[in-house]
Design brief:
Elements (H helix, E strand, L loop, with lengths): L9 H6 L1 H7 L9 H20 L11 H11 L2 H36 L7 E6 L5 E4 L5 E4 L3 E6 L7 E12 L8 E4 L5 E4 L3 E6 L5 E8 L2 E5 L2 E5 L3 E6 L4 E6 L13 E7 H12 L2 E4 L8 E6 L4 H11 L3 E6 L13 E6 L1
Helix pairs in contact: 3-5
Length: 343
């Protein structure tokens, strides 16, 4: 369950034999002589943009030419196009967010010159991914799946404000003269000076919460102010305007950063939301009765089917169906879909 995970750089990924076998498998995406040129153009863009994205603390410089040269020696001409097509699309999916951040910053810096106009920037973490980056004040942020955060290219002289739609873990650089504020979609505000905390506030969800790991934060919820202490988790439901508080283990605060999903007496409809975001799939519940079934479990290395099988142990009448990924008329692919139901 607690198996350590090594995050491969793009260069390591290209040279990994397991990734090579995956790229040469029959599941590889289709290609043509036309789009193979786009793949090599993409390779060049990755190399250029990665140089500009030094604000991303965990992105290593991608030595594209070196990695490609090593791989080309191992792969036959017949398989080379297949490998590079799928490899580059896979690497692009991994690097798109941090590279776009770097490219975006570089473009705005060049355009603004000496202009004092503040440029707003936005970082998004697509479904099934986690993005880590550094804010202009050197505060660190981890952005969970399907989350977006916006912030100015430089904070003003009074305070540091970011807008969050989704879930993020913040490690705020201490600055007593410049409060750090996280504004949620429902205009609730988490204020900190220098601390570590997690905020979960998706615009399509009536519930939001904040959990403090270290330091002190103030949570302005529905115009009521709450002083949050380490270990405190405040929960707000906008559909009922109710605020609740619980104390949980500090290690559970942002288990998603380590790829863990922790559920404690959690209704199935909430379990499904997290599973959908984490595994980049669509999951729906057919029978209303199932939505209120509650589960306590911790998942880390399991695949989705294994998780369903574990849920089935406590709910023997649980079953599911799966819709395979298919190619749409416009050339895109459908999302893998699961439906949970009672037998």
């Amino acid at each position: 369950m607690d198996k350590k995970t090594h995050i491969l750089s793009a260069e390591e990924l290209l040279e990994d034999l397991g990734f090579e076998n995956f790229s040469l498998s029959e599941e590889s995406c289709e290609f043509s002589d036309d789009n193979i040129e786009d793949i090599y153009e993409l390779k060049e863009k990755i190399e250029v943009l990665s140089k500009a994205s030094n604000m991303i603390n965990d992105l290593e410089y991608f030595q594209a030419d070196k990695a490609f040269a090593k791989v080309e020696k191992r792969i036959s001409d017949d398989n080379r196009k297949k490998f590079f097509t799928k490899a580059m699309f896979s690497i692009a999916a991994i690097l798109t967010i941090p590279l776009l951040i770097g490219g975006f910053l570089l473009l705005n810096f060049n355009k603004s010159g000496n202009d004092t106009t503040v440029v707003m920037q936005r970082v998004s973490s697509v479904k099934g991914t986690i993005t880590s980056f550094i804010l202009p004040d050197s505060s660190q942020v981890w952005l969970n799946s399907e989350s977006t955060i916006s912030f100015p290219s430089s904070f003003d002289e009074n305070e540091r404000i970011v807008n969050l739609d989704g879930e993020a873990y913040f490690k705020v650089k201490a600055d007593n003269n410049h409060p750090f504020k996280v504004v949620t979609p429902k205009n609730n505000i988490v204020t900190a000076l220098g601390t570590e905390f997690n905020v979960c506030a998706y615009s399509d969800d009536s519930e939001e919460e904040a959990f403090l790991v270290k330091g002190n934060i103030n949570y302005l919820l529905n115009n009521k102010s709450f002083n949050v202490q380490p270990g405190d988790k405040y929960h707000f439901d906008s559909s009922t305007n109710l605020v609740s508080k619980e104390t949980i283990a500090l290690n559970d605060a942002a288990s998603w950063k380590q790829g863990k999903l922790i559920f404690k007496n959690t209704p199935l409809d909430k379990v499904v939301k997290k599973l959908s975001r984490h595994y980049s799939v669509d999951i729906s519940i057919k029978d209303e009765k199932l939505k209120n079934y509650k589960y306590t479990a911790t998942f880390s290395n399991e695949n989705l089917i294994q998780i369903f099988q574990m849920l089935q142990i406590s709910t023997p009448d649980l079953s599911w169906s799966r819709t395979e990924i298919s190619k749409n008329e416009d050339g895109t692919y459908s999302t893998e879909t699961y439906v949970l139901m009672l037998k």
